[in-house]
């Protein structure tokens, strides 16, 4: 069995068999105050609305809860006083929740979070800027766009590209996962997504529950 196959087999074993040896500090919080916290599971009831900052997602409390419509690249909300739809300033939008899905504003567009967890994974187009020099020695600014896998750290709201180095920072204290990163050059995007899912299995995500 090659390294990639061993890696896939090991991660799938963790995901399917639920080999959990780590006790998340948040777990004790949820157990001692079960009326106030609920573990995230598929189908969790996100309050619909627009988040103006990361904290509103973390606490499941969007500050703008009018009817939402997405038209092109903009979000529109129902204005109570006029009963008409008005566009929302994109600079004030961190993200939004609609129909059970969460979307994050990134690189001038909205992207659906595919896997919600302590490390919430999504796909987005990354714009990178670099400078070259023309034939006369003048600097020229160029841009490249590429579809990339990213993840949102639900502890502090930071977004990272899903790479071996970035993910290794989180799994370094999980021997069963970290040992699979010995030969980093062979790990591809699919294996990284599996590792992220395995990490989330070991570290459940909790949201406050409101009456």
Description:
With 211 residues, the chain is of the alpha+beta class. The protein has two domains: 3-43 and 101-205, no CATH class; 46-99, no CATH class. 26% of the residues lie in helices and 35% in strands. The chain has six helices and twelve strands. The protein has helices at 3-17, 25-32, 54-58, 164-171, 175-178, 189-202; strands at residues 37-39, 49-51, 68-71, 74-79, 84-87, 95-98, 101-106, 109-115, 119-133, 139-153, 159-161, 206-208. A seven-stranded antiparallel sheet has the order 2-6-7-8-9-10-11. A hairpin with a 2-residue loop joins strand 3 (68-71) and strand 4 (74-79). Helix 1 (3-17) runs parallel beside helix 6 (189-202) and helix 4 packs parallel to helix 6 (189-202). The longest helix has 15 residues, at 3-17. 21% of the residues are buried. Residues 1-34 have low confidence and may be disordered.
List the helices and strands and how they pair.
Layout: H1 3-17, H2 25-32, E1 37-39, E2 49-51, H3 54-58, E3 68-71, E4 74-79, E5 84-87, E6 95-98, E7 101-106, E8 109-115, E9 119-133, E10 139-153, E11 159-161, H4 164-171, H5 175-178, H6 189-202, E12 206-208
Antiparallel strand pairs: 1-12, 2-6, 3-4, 4-5, 6-7, 7-8, 8-9, 9-10, 10-11
Order of helices and strands: HHEEHEEEEEEEEEHHHE
Major β-sheet strand ordering: 2-6-7-8-9-10-11
Number of helices: 6
Strand content: 25-35%
Gyration radius over CA: 20 Å
Sheet with the most strands?
A: 7 strands, antiparallel
Which regions are unreliable across 5 or more consecutive residues at pLDDT < 50? 1-34
Work out the helicity level.
Answer: 25-40%
Structurally, how many domains make up the residues?
2
- Gross geometry: flat
Beta strand count: 12
């Amino acid at each position: 069995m090659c390294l990639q196959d061993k890696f896939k087999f090991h991660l799938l074993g963790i995901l399917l068999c639920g080999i959990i040896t780590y006790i998340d500090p948040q777990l004790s919080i949820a157990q001692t105050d079960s009326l106030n916290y609920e573990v995230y599971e598929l189908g969790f009831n996100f309050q619909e609305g627009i988040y103006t900052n990361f904290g509103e997602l973390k606490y499941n409390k969007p500050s703008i809860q009018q009817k939402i419509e997405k038209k092109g690249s903009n979000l529109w909300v129902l204005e109570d006083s006029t009963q008409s739809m008005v566009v929302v300033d994109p600079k004030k939008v961190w993200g939004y929740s609609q129909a059970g899905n969460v979307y994050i504003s990134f690189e001038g567009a909205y992207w659906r979070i595919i896997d919600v967890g302590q490390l919430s994974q999504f796909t987005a187009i990354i714009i990178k800027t670099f400078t070259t020099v023309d034939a006369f020695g003048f600097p020229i600014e160029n841009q490249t766009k590429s579809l990339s896998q990213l993840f949102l750290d639900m502890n502090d709201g930071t977004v990272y590209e899903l790479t071996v180095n970035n993910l290794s920072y989180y799994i370094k204290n999980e021997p069963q996962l970290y040992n699979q990163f010995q030969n980093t050059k062979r790990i591809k995007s699919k294996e990284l997504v599996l590792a992220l899912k395995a990490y989330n299995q070991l570290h459940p995500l909790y949201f406050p529950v409101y009456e």
